């Protein structure tokens, strides 16, 4: 299975959900077993569709004050998005749902923010987590009997009473002091539950839309007041009421008091393409999770719990090591949470290690300057030997990302260790000039930005010195990228690559679990329906016949859609014509031949070769009327004209290849349409068109029987992009001219002897080499233009076909066809016949429980089958016959 097939899985889940929703087992005749299986199937389908459509998730985790929040804000172009400070500030997981803004949007912006509370089940789980943490920390001080009593304390309601009574009885004196952190969090949770009950608001499991002030109250730790954490939205006013999605007043005071019950804060952000092109990710969206610092004095146990609860769905994990702090046990904590989350993949494969706040690396100023100023070659070994703190940090980071058993597709450690600085990024981007005064003062930007810039420039010089070391292990690029923009551009590239490689595989594995749940639930429902013994008194043959043939037709269209995203990008697989039913030369071969023919027939070559005698240009033949190129620049006009001619023919050449490709699939589409036409007879078709709505639905059928309209869409896309074929700019072509301009050639009258190489090989060999170089560069230019058009057409046709498939699979079309085939009588709905329809729909979906391999590219139609009946319309692509 591939990422592209997830779209099909989501659509199949949606279709099956619509079928089950349409047949609700609510009547007195339905059995409890059927109702329960029906509910389980709907729930499994909902989870599977969510998993198939979910964007990629990236988590940021590390010790407190590692710069996570500011770095995340800068990635999105919003440095003030999240509260920041030198002490622990973030007290909750913040989920940022980032979507690509429109192309004309100049700046990123936040569109909505909400808070999500723990459900009752999650609150009970958190209570058990606190109980287990108390037992783990107190096991050396308690007797085995008392310890077992603690582990067995019943937790059935969201109430801290049992744990508090155990604390008052056994956890006192010096033991209480050693457990102060966990006991303080237990008190905070108890107070939060009491405050919730006093308010009368059923917060557990609820979501509430927040304004800016409420959002801060939901995420900033109680101890991180405005003296310690910068509020990016203005001064915080305690207790100011605001309206929430709960339908009652939700004040900042209540939010802060119930912070231990908050699962996460969700922010919706639209990211400007000029900041970060999210179009590189599937669906043009990402989910980024800002985890609280793991060594906070306020909520260390809770932080580990909420982080661990979110880790299961994270595809890539950014692990921040604070270059300005000492050694911490954060990696060990992360590893424990990873195991608790029961992840199937290795933690090392999922991590990108960031050495953050790199401008704060504790290195003496004279030492840094000496490495930057020295003119002698510098090696990685010399640098790390002289700056041991850097060596230790790199070693720690590389251990985090080096799996015990690396796979061939794993990114190497050098690709997943980065040096970053939010301060440097803030300075280079110029966004420090746009932030508010309070943010500037709290972050002390006037002092820290110049320091970060100064250190970055020094490290950049060191990185450039390292570039001569072939064994630098990429450290030279890490340092220069850090100096350029704080490492943000490199980080964005690495996230894209990591999501493509590791994240994609993990997402498919996660969906495979959901799919198995759906298959099992549907099988149980099918069994329950068959065991109920219900038989239909209604003839469902029309339902079955129409649904089956529409499913086959949709499957053919989905195959065409999915193939277009791959095959239309491969010039080696496309051909612009067919010969006796077989593909002609590939588009690449045609372009290669055309380029060689154009370049090799330049008049200058013929004139030049006419002057050659015994593999050398005869000086006597350079005189007179012979216009022989003797300078490199004299080849440029012909080179430019060849590039322009091939570029001008680019759209027509590609359109012919797309048409040939579509014709290669046309027969399958017509065959599937003819099968549908055996059920939807001309009388049924006319009956369908007899109403206004039916006319609109019927219009989809002729389009479903022909790929001609996709060919027209390809032509339109090319025409809209290149209204007049673009003329290649002289300066752009000159940059690709393979010969050095301004030089004389070996046969120039002033340089007839030429170089030793020319003298030994002969001018004729030099001419042949230059001709090959010209041909290769013209071909390179032509392929670049072709690839640009291929991407445009493939994306446009995929989009058009995908939208049409949604129309073809719409329940409204199926229902209208069934009614028309039944002579205008609507089929009765209910549980009667559901087993048969469920079996049919599931068998042709990604959730079939039949033994066939659903991943196999099975042919959904039989090429030799009966084609009784005619397609609904005979267009230019008549019957799929290839001209």
Using brief descriptors, characterize the structure shown.
15 strands; 883 residues; alpha/beta
Describe the structure.
The protein is α/β, with parallel strands linked by helices and 883 residues long. Among the domains are: 119-204; 549-843, no CATH class. 54% of the residues lie in helices and 8% in strands. The protein has 35 helices and 15 strands. The strands form four sheets. It has a nine-stranded mixed sheet, sandwiched between helices. It has a two-stranded antiparallel ribbon with strand order 2-6. A two-stranded antiparallel sheet has the order 12-13. Strand 12 (578-579) and strand 13 form a beta hairpin. Helix 2 (32-53) packs antiparallel against helix 21 (488-531). The chain starts with a helix and ends in a 40-residue tail after the last helix.
């Amino acid at each position: 299975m591939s990422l592209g097939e997830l779209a099909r899985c989501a659509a199949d889940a949606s279709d099956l959900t619509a079928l089950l929703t349409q047949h609700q087992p609510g009547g007195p005749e339905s059995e409890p077993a059927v109702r329960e299986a029906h509910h389980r199937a709907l729930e499994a389908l909902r989870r599977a569709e969510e998993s198939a459509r979910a964007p990629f998730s990236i988590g940021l985790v590390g010790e407190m004050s590692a710069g996570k929040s500011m770095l995340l804000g800068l990635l999105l172009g919003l440095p003030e998005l999240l509260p920041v400070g030198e002490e622990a500030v973030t007290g909750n997981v913040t989920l940022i749902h980032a979507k690509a803004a429109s192309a004309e949007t100049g700046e990123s912006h936040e569109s909505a923010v909400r808070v999500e509370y723990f459900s009752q089940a999650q609150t009970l789980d958190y209570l058990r987590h606190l109980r287990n943490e108390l037992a783990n920390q107190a096991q050396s001080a308690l007797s085995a009997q008392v310890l077992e009593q603690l582990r067995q304390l019943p937790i059935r309601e969201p109430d801290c009473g049992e744990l508090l009574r155990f604390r008052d009885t056994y956890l006192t004196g010096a033991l209480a002091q050693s457990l102060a952190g966990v006991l303080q969090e237990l008190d905070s949770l108890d107070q939060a539950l009491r405050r919730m009950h006093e308010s009368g608001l059923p917060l557990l499991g609820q979501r509430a839309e927040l304004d800016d002030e409420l959002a801060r109250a939901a995420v900033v730790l109680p101890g991180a007041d405005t003296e310690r954490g910068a509020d990016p939205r203005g001064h915080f006013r305690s207790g100011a009421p605001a309206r929430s999605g709960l339908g009652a007043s939700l004040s900042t005071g209540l939010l802060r008091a119930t912070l231990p019950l908050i699962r996460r804060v969700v922010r919706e952000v639209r990211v400007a393409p000029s900041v970060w092109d999210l179009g590189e990710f599937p669906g043009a969206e990402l989910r980024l999770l800002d985890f609280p610092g793991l060594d906070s004095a306020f909520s260390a146990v809770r932080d580990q719990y909420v982080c661990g609860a979110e880790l299961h769905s994270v595809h890539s994990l950014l692990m921040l090591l604070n270059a300005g702090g000492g050694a911490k046990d954060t990696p060990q904590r992360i590893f424990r949470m990873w195991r608790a989350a029961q992840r199937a993949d290795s933690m090392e494969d999922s991590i990108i290690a960031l050495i953050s706040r790199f401008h704060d690396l504790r290195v003496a100023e004279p030492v840094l300057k000496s490495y930057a100023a020295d003119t002698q070659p510098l090696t990685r070994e010399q640098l790390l030997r002289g700056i041991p703190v850097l060596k230790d940090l790199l070693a720690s980071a590389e251990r985090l990302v080096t799996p015990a058993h690396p796979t061939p597709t794993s990114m190497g450690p050098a690709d997943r260790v980065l040096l970053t600085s939010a301060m440097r990024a803030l300075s280079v981007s110029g966004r420090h000039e746009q932030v508010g005064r309070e943010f500037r003062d709290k972050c002390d930007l006037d002092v820290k930005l110049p320091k970060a810039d100064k250190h970055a420039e020094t490290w950049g010089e060191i990185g450039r010195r390292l570039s001569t070391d072939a064994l630098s292990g990429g450290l030279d690029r890490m340092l220069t990228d850090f100096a350029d923009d704080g490492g943000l551009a490199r980080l964005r590239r690495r996230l894209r690559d990591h999501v493509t490689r590791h994240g994609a595989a993990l997402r498919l594995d996660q969906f495979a679990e959901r799919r198995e749940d759906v298959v099992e639930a549907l099988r149980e429902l099918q069994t329950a329906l068959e065991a109920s013994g219900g038989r239909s008194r209604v003839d469902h043959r029309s339902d079955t016949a129409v649904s089956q043939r529409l499913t086959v037709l949709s499957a053919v269209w989905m195959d065409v859609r999915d193939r277009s995203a791959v095959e239309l990008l491969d010039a080696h697989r496309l051909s612009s014509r067919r010969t006796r039913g077989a593909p002609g030369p590939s588009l690449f071969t045609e372009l290669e031949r055309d380029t060689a023919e154009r370049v090799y027939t330049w008049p200058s070559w013929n004139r030049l070769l006419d002057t050659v005698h015994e593999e050398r240009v005869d000086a006597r033949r350079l005189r007179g009327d012979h216009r022989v190129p003797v300078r490199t620049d004299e080849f440029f006009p012909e080179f430019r004209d060849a590039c322009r001619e091939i570029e001008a023919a680019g759209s027509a050449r590609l359109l012919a290849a797309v048409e040939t490709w579509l014709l290669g699939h046309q027969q399958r589409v017509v065959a599937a349409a003819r099968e549908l036409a055996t059920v939807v007879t001309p009388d049924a078709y006319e009956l369908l068109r007899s109403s206004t709505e039916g006319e609109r639905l019927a219009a989809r059928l002729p389009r479903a029987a022909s790929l001609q309209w996709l060919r027209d869409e390809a032509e339109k896309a090319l025409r809209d992009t290149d209204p007049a074929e673009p003329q290649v700019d002289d300066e752009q072509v000159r940059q690709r001219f393979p010969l050095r301009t301004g030089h004389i050639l070996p046969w120039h009258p002033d340089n007839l002897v030429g170089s030793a190489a020319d003298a030994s090989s002969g001018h004729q060999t030099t001419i042949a080499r230059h001709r090959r170089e010209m041909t290769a560069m013209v071909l390179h230019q032509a392929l670049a233009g072709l690839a640009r058009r291929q991407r445009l057409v493939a994306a446009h046709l995929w989009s058009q076909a995908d939208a049409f498939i949604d129309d073809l699979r719409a329940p409204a079309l199926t229902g209208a066809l069934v009614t028309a085939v039944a002579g205008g009588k609507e089929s009765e709905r209910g549980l009667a016949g559901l087993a048969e329809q469920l079996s049919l729909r599931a068998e042709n979906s990604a959730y079939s429980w039949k033994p066939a391999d659903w991943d196999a590219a099975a042919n959904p139609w039989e090429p030799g089958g009966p084609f009784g009946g005619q397609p609904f319309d005979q267009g230019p692509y008549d019957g799929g016959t290839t001209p």
